[in-house]
Recover the amino acids of this structure.
């Protein structure tokens, strides 16, 4: 396991204020973008004490996560994904144009006042509906280092090519960004090749490797206490994780209606975005079984994963990394609409023996019962076959980024 340094000194000459990092995620669907940025912020703080990090997110659930000292959050008015993959206001009775204007103005004012040394943008180079463009133009003038962070897989190749062309993403990368960090291993999936990125984009890419959540302290003491107080069933535990939960009802129902091996228990974590009516339906199903617990939300699932014998989950980036970190026997039932990102990831990792995969079209209580009753088998350690050292590598990339920023600041101060 890569150890993150706790003793890195910040020698910056005349540039003597703490490093300021902003991390933006648009967050129109689940919790993945926010959780990844929070993990990155914690990694940087563990690596360098003299860092402040501002999480900018479109999720009101941001406030539910314990934030370490040095990290705070700004929540934008929330958007939600439509069934066709577009964006709609999650709650406010505004048009998409109106809510985007509010978000864009909020972003610009906050980033102008905060004046970050580094801005890390998750996935969308211009933000959702180009809401980030005015801020990028402003920060480019002030010398802020601009980093685009990409998860290992965005979607199937042709869809990404169309989206990047329609959204002028290559032009945005050329115009604004200093670097691109891909949080994955190109041997598993190489976005530069799969998405046919041009040479100007390829030159800016660094592959960090997958982000192992166990390589950085991620658990707040109060959250530890909450995890210990969870009333878990006796015996071996099968754990089901729905991520944010918005579209997780089919998997949750199949899990609760399945028949686990005798003497074992089940824990379902629904996620905070599962609609209340569906929450009530699942709790009603669970009430019929003494060996079953339903939990709406945990900010840190790692203690549960540590206790689990088997895991059933959707295939988001963060959940998958958490499963690999604990080397658990896992069944991934990926989302296939509106994106096939989870399906591609599950297939690649299943081919390497790290997980089992079930297509959602094959999901039912009987198929889950069969998998839960399948004899135990060993799972290979991900770190032995793929690059799972993303936490340490992104910290080194950050060092290079702020070193360049420091040199520029010293040169400017000498003029």
């Amino acid at each position: 396991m890569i150890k993150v340094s706790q003793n890195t000194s910040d020698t910056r000459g005349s540039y003597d204020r703490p490093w300021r990092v902003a991390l933006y995620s648009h967050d129109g669907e689940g919790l993945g973008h926010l959780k990844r940025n929070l993990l990155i912020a914690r990694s940087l703080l563990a690596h360098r004490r003299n860092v402040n990090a501002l999480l900018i997110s479109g999720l009101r659930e941001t406030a539910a996560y314990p934030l370490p000292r040095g990290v705070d959050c700004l929540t934008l008015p929330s958007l939600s994904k439509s069934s066709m993959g577009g964006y709609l206001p999650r709650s406010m009775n505004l048009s998409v144009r109106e809510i985007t204007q509010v978000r864009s103005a909020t972003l610009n004012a906050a980033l102008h006042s905060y004046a970050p040394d580094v801005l890390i943008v998750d996935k969308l180079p211009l933000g959702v509906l180009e809401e980030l463009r005015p801020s990028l133009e402003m920060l480019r003038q002030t010398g802020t280092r601009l980093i685009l962070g990409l998860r290992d897989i965005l979607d199937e190749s042709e869809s990404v090519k169309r989206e990047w062309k329609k959204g002028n993403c290559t032009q945005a990368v050329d115009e604004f960004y200093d670097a691109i960090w891909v949080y994955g291993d190109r041997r598993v999936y190489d976005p530069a090749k799969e998405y046919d990125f041009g040479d100007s984009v390829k030159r800016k890419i660094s592959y960090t490797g997958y982000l192992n959540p166990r390589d950085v302290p991620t658990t707040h003491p109060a959250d530890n206490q909450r995890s210990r107080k969870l009333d878990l069933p006796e015996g071996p535990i099968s754990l089901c994780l729905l991520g944010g939960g918005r579209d997780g009802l089919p998997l949750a129902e199949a899990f609760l209606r399945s028949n686990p091996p005798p003497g074992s228990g089940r824990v379902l974590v629904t996620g905070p975005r599962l609609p209340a009516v569906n929450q009530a339906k699942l709790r009603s199903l669970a009430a019929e079984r003494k060996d079953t617990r339903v939990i709406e939300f945990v900010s840190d699932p790692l203690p549960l994963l540590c206790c689990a014998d088997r895991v059933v989950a959707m295939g988001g980036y963060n959940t998958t990394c958490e499963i690999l970190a604990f080397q658990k026997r896992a069944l991934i039932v990926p989302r296939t609409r509106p994106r096939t990102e989870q399906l591609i990831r599950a297939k690649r990792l299943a081919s390497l023996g790290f997980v089992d995969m079930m297509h959602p079209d094959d999901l039912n209580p009987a198929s889950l019962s069969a998998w839960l009753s399948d004899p135990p088998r060993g799972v290979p350690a991900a770190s032995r076959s793929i690059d799972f050292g993303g936490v340490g590598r992104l910290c080194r990339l950050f060092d290079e980024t702020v070193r360049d920023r420091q040199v520029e600041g010293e040169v400017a101060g000498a003029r």
